[in-house]
Amino acid sequence: MNAATTRTALQVDDYLDLLNLAVKVGDMKWQKEIKSRLQYILCLETR
């Protein structure tokens, strides 16, 4: 695993933790922003 893959994996884990928190507090706007960022990261990885 190279440094870029490790960094991306950590980012995804961090965003998933934030998404879980956003769900717990019921913040729909925050959930949408986090999901958007995760989708962006996924697009970067598939290039």
UniProtKB/TrEMBL annotation:
This is Uncharacterized protein.
